[in-house]
Design goal:
Layout (H helix, E strand, L loop, with lengths): L2 E2 L2 H17 L6 E7 L3 H17 L2 E7 L5 H13 L5 E4 L11 H7 L11 H9 L7 H12 L8 E5 L6 H10 L3 E5 L6 H5 L4 E4 L17 E4 L3 E2 L5 E2 L4 H5 L4 E2 L6 H19 L4
Parallel strand pairs: 1-11, 2-3, 2-4, 5-6, 5-7, 7-8, 8-11
Antiparallel strand pairs: 9-10
Bound molecules: guanine (GUN).
Length: 282
């Protein structure tokens, strides 16, 4: 029976550490959170991020814009925030509303890379590729922090990442590679997924498909990290992993909720603190 990796408890510990570091600063870090449109899930994420900031003494300012505000007004707001001194980090909640002509890449490019606490700007993506971390990619960094906390060293291990998104899959593979893992990335066109996932010492699933990872796809004793956030037919949160049967086979497993989600949120706070330091706040 697997040990459950308690992301919620670890996040609480990290937040306390962040709160202490923030309280030692003369000037508090500031985060601007931009939400365009009214997607209910995005609304919840943004509210949670603001709550986290408040708990840690980080100033946050929300900019809730109607979906029809348009690309130009959004770029103007980012330009203003790029220049505001009390704002250290800028986060544009994704996805931008569909059915309008938003250009997500142009939006991400317009954020000052020194304020890019999501690490989505191509400059920071490049830095991650090189292994020169100013800002950590939040979800993958949260996963790494959980592995470290539980004494799981990826060095020399076969790590299989299922999912190739810019936000999770690709940067996750990089972080594991930098820790000397042998990494395989699988995706929707991968043939015979189970043959590959069964080879994983550490399996990270970041797809968004309930019960994608079943027990027969997992090696006995594997570490299973479930990054996904899905809802079952009764609206309950669940991940990609068929939790019950897989946890009977795995050595460690993250639950959904209470695994990767809280750790992702914490990494944003670390990045905001790092941004404040980058801007000379001490
Ligand atoms: N949408 C889903 N995950 C994220 C994230 O980590 N950051 C932002 N800005 N949007 C998201």
């Amino acid at each position: 029976m697997a040990t459950i990796i308690d992301g919620k408890a670890l996040a609480a510990k990290c937040k306390e550490e962040i709160r202490q570091q923030v309280s030692a600063l003369q000037r508090r870090p500031g985060l601007a959170v931009i939400l365009v449109g009214s997607d209910p899930a995005s609304r919840v994420y943004v509210t949670n991020k603001e709550k986290d900031c408040a708990q840690c003494g980080i100033y946050s300012e929300e900019f809730a814009l109607p979906a029809e505000v348009g690309q130009r007004a959004l770029l103007e707001l980012i330009d203003e925030l790029n220049r505001r001194e009390e704002i250290d980090g800028i986060l544009v909640q994704l996805p931008l509303p569909r059915g309008y002509d938003y250009d997500e890449q142009e939006v991400l490019l317009s954020i000052d890379p020194r304020k890019d606490v999501d690490a989505f700007h191509p400059f920071n993506v490049g830095q991650i590729m090189i292994g020169n971390y100013t800002f950590l990619p939040c979800t993958p960094a949260g996963v790494m922090r959980m592995l470290d906390e539980y004494g799981i060293n990826p060095k020399g291990k076969h790590c299989v990442v299922v999912g190739r998104s810019n936000i999770v899959g690709k940067p996750q593979a990089m972080l594991l590679l930098h820790r000397h893992a042998t990494v395989t990335i699988c995706h929707s066109r991968t043939q015979d997924l189970g043959t590959i996932t069964r080879q994983a010492d550490i399996l990270v699933s970041a797809v968004g498909k309930r019960n994608l990872i079943t027990a027969d796809m997992v090696k006995e004793g594997a570490v299973v990290i479930d990054v996904a956030m899905n809802r079952d037919e009764s609206g309950k949160l669940c991940g990609d992993v068929d939790f019950g049967p897989v946890s009977a086979k795995a050595s460690y497993i993250t639950p959904v909720p209470g695994g990767c989600g809280p750790m992702t949120r914490v990494m944003l706070l670390y990045n905001t603190l790092a941004a404040a330091r980058l801007h000379g706040k001490s």
